[in-house]
Specification:
alpha/beta, Arc Repressor Mutant, subunit A, D-Maltodextrin-Binding Protein, domain 2, five-stranded mixed beta sheet, 304 residues
Length: 304
């Protein structure tokens, strides 16, 4: 691209770019930033001329970013956050007065565990603040942070790269669950009986062999995974409605034990805990609002 004279550029175009990239839809982007849909379309045409690239291509999935758009999106988001910081004049974040919107990436498990307490805290401490919770998973969480689709993720993720930060929320263990009148559940639940049962497995990718199966395989054991689902919150419902048994994160089942006729057991083998963390890009490190949100989420995780 040729030399650019900032005096000739409307920097509000970056606001439009950021909104379209985040929403993947021109109409939703318009609603997000308070413009009309034709105004967003006009701004996109100016952006395309400025960059010499389509930037976003229409598809059945919405406005799909081009490679160039994906490359520049993190820098655009960082520029806008720096401008916001300058306009705040270094003032401390006031949650009681803020109308800021935070965009989080959560799996359905993390949303189930964390969001009720988090929204309760926001009701009390930041009633004008809003949240957008987008679905994520171990396989795509870090890339969503990288491209600016979300500004913070919570769940179980691979070790982040050096330009990202991570904070422990809690360590999660496993529990076995079956329906209250399951005919083949005895106390204690021994290993032979456990392996003879029909099991449900949760896998975002639809893989019938997961973390628990890897632990069993290390001991030369195998369970009968009869049903695999892609959402954690399906597991309690299916356990309650069938003879399936689940071995899943404890915080998924213990809150439901008083609402559904479930029986909970410790697993008959030692299954290592896993870490539930919050992860963010380093460009958010010094943002007072982001620091506040991370502190609240950390406190919520400690209570979970």
């Amino acid at each position: 691209m040729n030399a650019v004279h900032l005096a000739n550029i409307d920097l509000n175009l970056l606001v439009v770019f950021d909104a379209v990239f985040a929403e993947g839809h021109a109409t939703r982007a318009a609603e997000r930033i308070g413009l009309t849909q034709p105004a967003v379309s006009h701004a996109l045409n100016r952006l395309r001329a400025l960059f010499g690239d389509p930037l976003f291509v229409r598809s059945p999935r919405g406005m799909v970013p081009t490679s160039l758009a994906q490359d520049i999106a993190p820098n655009v988001r960082s520029i806008l956050e720096q401008v916001q910081g300058v306009l705040r004049g270094g003032r401390a974040f006031d949650p009681t007065a803020s109308t800021r919107q935070f965009v989080l990436g959560l799996s359905d498990y993390a949303a189930y565990v964390l969001l009720p307490r988090l929204t309760a805290r926001l009701d009390q401490e930041a009633p004008g603040l809003s949240l957008v919770a987008r679905n994520t998973s171990r396989s795509v969480g870090l890339s969503m942070l990288e491209d600016g689709t979300v500004e913070l993720i919570a769940g179980n993720f691979p070790e982040p790269p050096t330009h990202m930060r991570e904070g422990l929320l809690y360590e999660e263990d496993f529990i076995c669950a079956g329906r209250g009148d399951h005919p083949n559940l005895g106390e204690p639940l021994d290993l032979d009986r456990y392996l003879a049962l029909r099991h449900i497995q949760v896998s975002m990718r639809g893989n019938p062999s997961g973390y628990v199966d890897a632990v069993l395989a290390e001991r030369g054991l195998k369970r009968n995974v009869a049903v695999t689902v892609g959402h954690f919150l399906m597991a309690p419902m299916l356990v309650d409605a069938s003879d399936l048994v689940a071995t899943e994160p404890r915080r998924l089942f213990t809150p439901l034990a008083g609402r559904l006729p479930l029986r909970l057991f410790p697993p008959p083998i030692d299954i290592p805990q896993f870490r539930v963390v919050q992860t963010w890009h380093s460009r958010h490190d010094a943002d007072p609002g982001h620091q506040w949100l991370r502190r609240i989420l950390r406190e919520v995780g400690q209570q979970a």
